[in-house]
TrEMBL record:
PROSITE patterns, per the entry: GNAT
Molecular function per GO: acyltransferase activity, transferring groups other than amino-acyl groups
Coiled-coil zones: none
The species this protein was found in: Lachnellula subtilissima
UniProt name for this protein: N-acetyltransferase domain-containing protein
Listed Pfam families: Acetyltransf_1
Domain of life: Eukaryota
CDD domains: NAT_SF (cd04301)
All copies of domain N-acetyltransferase, residue ranges: 81-228
Amino acid sequence: MSYVVQSVTTSDAPGVARAMFSAFWQDIHWQRLWATDMDLEAIIRDCAERLPWLLISGRNVKRHLKVVDTSSGEIVGYSRYIVPESHVGMWIDAQTFEPSPEEKLGFEQRFESVTDNGRIRGMNYAMLAEFGNPLDKVEKGILKESGPCFAVDYMSTHPAHKGHGVASMMLKEALKQVDAIGLKTIVMASPAGRGLYERQGFIFVCTLAQDYSKYGITEPYVHHWLLREPHK
């Protein structure tokens, strides 16, 4: 298989939604966040409508990459990064375009058509807060010690294309940018993804394992935090 890394545009929303949520759906903990009447296809459809608005929101600090299968044209990987406020001028090539007022209004209307007062349809927000708030607390503690960092926010590969270096391609491209300006990088990784980051020079910081047994899942929800110093 042959792949290429590219920047992301709002027109990529359907392909990005499918690659990203097909990847997330492999995690049973993540599946539990959704109402039982929301199957994967419904979640992908809603996400494709939300994404154009989300891609342009906070665009000063968000950067995006996709990987395309050159033989099919399919988007098979997506990653999102957050730059610190002190470095909003970096890596503009991975920033989404500034939409016209008409485009912006259209994106906002599409977002509102599949959300309830800004909330994602079918998502269990109480459960999201229960498990998300402790994760935020850990990360804030790390950043307090480390100082400003470039953050790997999302890293996803469509399950049909895992094991072909898709995530590595995106990560290496992003790290070129931070190495060029001497910025630390932080990531919260799953156990399966930890090796990807360690191979690129990330150092383990800590782990949080959360009990999901009351939701019928015996396996704890585990996240690892890693930091990487810039390479010269």
